[in-house]
Amino acid sequence: GDSVTQMEGPVTLSEEAFLTINCTYTATGYPSLFWYVQYPGEGLQLLLKATKADDKGSNKGFEATYRKETTSFHLEKGSVQVSDSAVYFCALSSGAGSYQLTFGKGTKLSVIP
Amino acid sequence: NAGVTQTPKFQVLKTGQSMTLQCAQDMNHEYMSWYRQDPGMGLRLIHYSVGAGITDQGEVPNGYNVSRSTTEDFPLRLLSAAPSQTSVYFCASSRTVNSNQPQHFGDGTRLSIL
């Protein structure tokens, strides 16, 4: 079945540091890939998405490229801010049957001033 | 812009009690779903609906019931609460049943079963 593996946290960075959160996936067919962000006490919000190979999703300075050859969708940001502190989830939707999102376990990011 | 609204935000139940978690969306979305979030496990799909009158089971459906009588509402019922159902529950919706459609999440219901 479908699965998503993302790097374990927590991750602690200083403000303005470079961020990478690794995500790899296993899926049938051609899934759509997503990054969601969850701020404390809130629900998940879509951060960015990519729906086909070599697509790059971007939003709020975050980027991720859909790499079919390495089955990866790593999240990057060049300069993190304290306000980026949150839990980040990589997810895929293969559209097979339930249209469900299959999530990774989440990576908690803390950015310190 | 209400989006997806979940009530209540917090609830404590005793083992064996029943309750309904409410979910409503005002975006005329076709697809709705319920997930539970447990520490270290990401989110897992409980039940989903592709339209009014149509529901189906997800990955972890046991102990839960759903119905979809209107496009807007998708309540989740716990039939006889068990401590293993202590979790944070999220309702989500998307415009269509297309895999490239992002899902919009509510703020969650934190449920404790004693």
Describe the structure.
- The complex is a heterodimer of chains A (113) and B (114).
- Chain A has 113 residues and is mostly beta strands.
- In chain A, 0% of the residues lie in helices and 50% in strands.
- Chain A is built from no helices and twelve strands.
- In chain A, the strands form three sheets. In chain A, strands 2, 5, 6, 10, 11 and 12 form a six-stranded mixed sheet that branches. Chain A has a four-stranded antiparallel sheet with strand order 3-9-8-7, with no helix packed on it. In chain A, strands 1-4 form a two-stranded antiparallel sheet.
- Chain A is globular, with a radius of gyration of 14 Å.
- Chain B is mostly beta strands and 114 residues long.
- Helix content of chain B is 0%, strand content 49%.
- Chain B has no helices and eleven strands.
- Chain B has strands at residues 4-7, 10-13, 19-25, 31-37, 43-51, 54-57, 64-66, 76-78, 87-94, 104-105, 109-113.
- The mean pLDDT of chain B is 93.
- Classes of the chains: A mainly beta (113), B mainly beta (114).
List keywords for this structure.
heterodimer, A: 113 residues, six-stranded mixed beta sheet, four-stranded antiparallel beta sheet, globular, B: 114 residues, mainly beta
Summarize the structure.
Chain A is mostly beta strands. Chain A contains no helices and twelve strands.
Write the layout of secondary structure elements.
The complex is a heterodimer of chains A (113) and B (114).
Chain A (H helix, E strand, L loop, with lengths): L2 E4 L4 E4 L4 E3 L1 E4 L5 E7 L5 E7 L5 E4 L2 E4 L9 E3 L8 E8 L8 E2 L3 E6 L1
Chain B lengths: L3 E4 L2 E4 L5 E7 L5 E7 L5 E9 L2 E4 L6 E3 L9 E3 L8 E8 L9 E2 L3 E5 L1
Note the total helix count of chain B: 0
Structural class of chain A: mainly beta
Low-pLDDT segments, ≥5 res of chain A: none
Q: What's the alpha carbon Rg of chain A, rounded to whole Å?
A: 14 Å
Helix/sheet category of chain B: mainly beta
